Amino acid sequence: MLNLFRLKSGNRLDRKDTFFQYSTEEQFTGKYWIDGKKIYSKVIAINQTHDGHNDLTITHNIGIDYIIRYYGTGYVANQVGYRRCFPYTSCSDSTGFYMTEYHENTIKFWSNWRVDGYVVIEYTKIS
């Protein structure tokens, strides 16, 4: 019998052995988008202080075709110290952090206060 996977018990895979680790380096997720292109993942660290409404442009040079989704962990803190998880936007306290646009080699986020955390992007690449 050929052992392709390490089995946790007689018929169950140890899932942590089959999943990828989050990384600041680009990696293939093992998934494919509806057009058949591979889906890649990369973690972007963000630590930025803003003094008003500002765009934050991240240069990544990875040749993004489509961003499938983005999510993260961290916070946006306004001038009085309120912290919110992101992506986040609120009309009531005027605090926010979210993606406004992306291009082949850059991603632009908007935030009006301090941002500290990580954003995970899943994307396809230009062929």
Task: Outline the fold blueprint.
Elements: E1 7-9, E2 12-13, E3 27-32, E4 38-48, E5 54-59, E6 64-77, E7 83-84, E8 88-89, E9 96-102, E10 106-111, E11 114-125
Antiparallel strand pairs: 1-2, 3-4, 4-11, 5-10, 6-7, 6-11, 8-9, 9-10
Describe the structure.
This protein is mainly β and about 130 residues long. The chain is built from no helices and eleven strands. The protein has strands spanning about 5-10, 10-15, 25-30, 40-50, 55-60, 65-75, 85, 90, 95-100, 105-110, 115-125. The strands form three sheets. Strands 3-4-11-6-7 form a five-stranded antiparallel beta sheet, with no helix packed on it. It has a four-stranded antiparallel beta sheet with strand order 5-10-9-8, with no helix packed on it. A two-stranded antiparallel ribbon has the order 1-2. Strand 3 and strand 4 form a beta hairpin. The radius of gyration is 18 Å and the shape is elongated. About 15% of the residues are buried. The mean pLDDT is about 75.
Q: If helices are DSSP runs of H or I spanning 4 or more residues, what is the number of helices?
A: 0
Biggest sheet layout: 5 strands, antiparallel
Q: Looking across the biggest beta sheet, what order are the strands in?
A: 3-4-11-6-7
Radius of gyration: 18 Å
Q: Roughly how many Å apart are the termini?
A: 38 Å
Number of strands: 11
Helix content: under 10%
Identify low-pLDDT runs: none
Which sequence of SSEs, written as H and E, runs from N to C? Answer: EEEEEEEEEEE
Structural class: mainly beta
Indicate the mean pLDDT.
Answer: 77
Strand content: over 45%
User: Which overall shape is indicated by the principal axes computed on the Cα atoms?
Assistant: elongated
